[in-house]
Design a protein that fits this description.
The chain has two helices and 40 strands. The chain is mostly beta strands. Strands 1, 2, 3, 4, 5, 6, 7, 8, 9, 10 and 11 form an eleven-stranded mixed β-sheet that branches. Strands 12, 14, 16, 18 and 19 form a five-stranded antiparallel β-sheet that branches.
């Protein structure tokens, strides 16, 4: 694989020759049982120019990390996080095992400016169970590393932290909102901080309510028990989320414990999404609970919503996903909005597509998604939806939940509207603007790959180019990359901009092909058949084909030759130990990236 390139040797040699000059500090505060707490990592540069870092946080087994987000104010858009277990195998499913390790890399492919001393790099949201022991809980900092703008490695110290847990009743959930910045990445605009206003309607003034209950995971082992994340959304008869509604939670049968049992709806944060009319609860199922089904009931104002989880004897049976290559673990949400600009005088219809993705950035079907928008101009036609397979521009797309916002004529301008879409585990957001002169929409998206015929276990460069109706390139347009499940994009979303050597309107990424991806062949002729990769931006789709070859073959015996056809001396083999030219790796941060992913791969093995 690419992390085994021979240049890793000099990277390790450089690291071994450096001296301690900086440190990473974990910072947190006190918590009570049942709390959601924020854990942050701070950089102390000690006068060194540091542009990228990596480290792991090891929780003590009781405190459970849920999700992490880079501080958008530091503009490190290629940052990545991975939650796993300290016990091998490191990448096992966090739904059935205790996951207590957060691995992070804070990096950008385009911004190599030194980070400020004392800068908050990222924050993680963690759950303190209601059964957690009181007293100190140690959060360990391990495997720290850093890089200068010139790609010189910097050894960094790593400071642990202690979280003190008390036995007082749990506080309301913390608002886990990435810090705002004028130019965040990968979101289109700065993450606004919403100020909750008065309740939309009082309980006595609302004749009818809709109660939606989301539970994740929906299946557990009865012998092992476990934790279920519960989210309740309350809306009025016009599908507007209701703040200030009292919700009572109960279980049938009454097994395990749910906390809180009663709470008022309000605005909560899930990943990047801000959700109104919502409460978050936690259901703990003890080990050796009788097998069967448990119904979670949420009641408010005479209306009730339910969700059912299944407790299986023995291990939970695998559920085949709609896509045979799809992961079974729900991950992030990408929100695509078209158009990005609406005429204030004429109004219009805004289509919102929420792509639910697994942990590898591949589409995930059957995820319950709820939508909201702020400010609430116009009408949101759909509040809740389920991601499924849809047809778009002649393409089959998986993991899509759809909603629409009707913007009335004469809407005040300029107005920026933030649209949130969230699942029980994560959320995403997108924006559109109501203006007198709306922004130019994307009309054409071109997808290019190099090489067109890789081998399994290798990687290839991918770039998307956005154009308007006049053929001019468009910058600052968010692009989602996904495929048939043959590998993972790093990153899977990027904004178009100026890329050296490629010009404006370009969103670059890298696709890492899984080692076990099969070579598709025509049974009759033996010709190699293509796999399809896709990109989407502003409601416009683009596709490209790649031919996964066996061993170290060349672009020959293909069912349909890629365009342009490769030259004889430009074979698509990646068997050489030396890397091919790669604009995504042209950044001076290649040393840190190679080291990070090499260590992750070795740990997983």
């Amino acid at each position: 694989m690419w992390w085994r390139w021979s240049c890793a040797g000099w990277i390790l040699a450089l690291l071994s020759s450096s001296s301690w000059a900086a440190r990473l500090e974990i910072q947190t505060g006190e918590a009570r049982r049942g709390d959601l707490v924020e854990v942050s990592v701070i950089l102390r540069t000690d006068g060194r120019d540091i542009t990228a870092t990596e480290n792991d946080i090891i929780f003590d087994g009781q405190i459970r990390p849920l999700e992490c987000a880079v501080n958008p104010a530091i503009d490190r858009g290629a940052s990545a996080f991975h939650i796993s277990s300290t016990e091998p195998p490191r990448d096992r499913d966090c739904l059935t095992e205790v996951c207590d390790r957060v691995a992070s890399i804070i990096v950008s492919f385009s911004n190599v400016d030194p980070l400020d001393d004392g800068a908050t790099l990222y924050s993680c949201l963690a759950q303190v169970p209601t059964a957690a022991t009181t007293g100190p809980h140690v959060l360990q900092c391990e495997d720290a590393g850093a890089s200068t703008p010139a790609a010189d490695p910097v050894d960094v110290d790593c400071a642990d932290a202690v979280l003190i847990v008390s036995d007082a009743p749990p506080r309301p959930s913390v608002a886990f909102t990435p810090r705002p910045t004028p130019t965040p990445w990968p979101t289109e605009t700065a993450a606004p901080t919403f100020t909750q206003g008065p309740p939309t309607e009082t309980p006595t003034a609302t004749p009818h309510r809709q109660v939606s209950v989301f539970a994740f995971p929906a299946q557990l082992s009865a012998e092992r028990g476990g934790r279920v994340d519960v989210r309740v959304l309350v809306a009025d008869s016009n599908d507007v989320p209701l703040d200030g509604a009292r919700v009572d939670l109960s279980l049938a049968p009454a097994v395990g414990s749910i906390s809180p049992r009663s709470a008022k709806t309000g605005t909560v944060s899930i990943s990047e999404a801000q959700l109104s009319g919502t409460i978050i609860a936690s259901l703990e199922i003890p080990p050796n609970t009788p097998a069967g089904s448990v119904e979670i009931r949420a009641e408010t104002g005479g209306e009730m919503g339910t969700a059912t989880i299944l407790l299986w004897p023995g291990a939970v049976p695998p559920t085949p996903p709609p896509d045979p290559r799809q992961s079974a673990t729900l991950g992030s949400v990408f929100v695509d909005i078209a158009p990005v600009g609406v005429d204030a005088g004429e109004g219009g219809v805004v289509d919102v597509w929420a792509f639910t993705l697994d942990l590898s950035g591949q589409p995930y079907n059957s995820a319950a998604v709820s939508f909201d928008h702020e400010p609430r101009i116009g009408t949101l036609e759909v509040v809740t939806s389920t991601s499924t397979t849809v047809q778009s521009n002649g393409q089959t797309l998986h993991g899509v939940a759809q909603a629409r916002i009707l913007v009335p004529p004469g809407t005040e301008s300029p107005t920026e509207v933030t649209v949130s879409a969230s699942t029980s585990r994560s959320g995403g957001r997108g924006t559109f603007r109501v203006e007198a002169e709306p922004a130019v929409p994307v009309t054409t998206l071109v997808l290019e790959v190099d090489p067109a015929c890789p081998v399994g276990g290798s990687s290839l460069n991918v770039r998307a180019i956005a154009f308007d109706a006049n053929g001019d390139r468009l910058n600052d347009r968010r692009v989602l990359f996904h495929s048939d499940g043959i590998g993972s994009f790093r990153p899977y979303t990027f904004r178009t901009g100026h890329v050296i050597g490629h010009g404006d309107g370009v969103a670059p990424t890298e696709l890492r092909i899984e080692r076990e991806v099969p070579v598709r062949t025509d049974p009759a002729t033996g010709a190699i058949l293509p796999w399809t990769i896709r990109a989407r931006s502003g409601g416009v789709d683009a596709t490209a084909q790649i031919f996964v070859l066996p061993g170290s073959g060349r672009c020959t015996n293909l069912a349909a030759a890629p365009t342009p056809a490769p030259q004889e001396d430009d074979g698509c083999a990646l068997a050489s130990p030396s890397p091919r030219p790669n604009f995504a790796l042209a950044s001076p941060l290649v040393a840190l990236l190679l080291l990070y992913w090499r260590r992750r791969a070795n740990a997983a093995e």
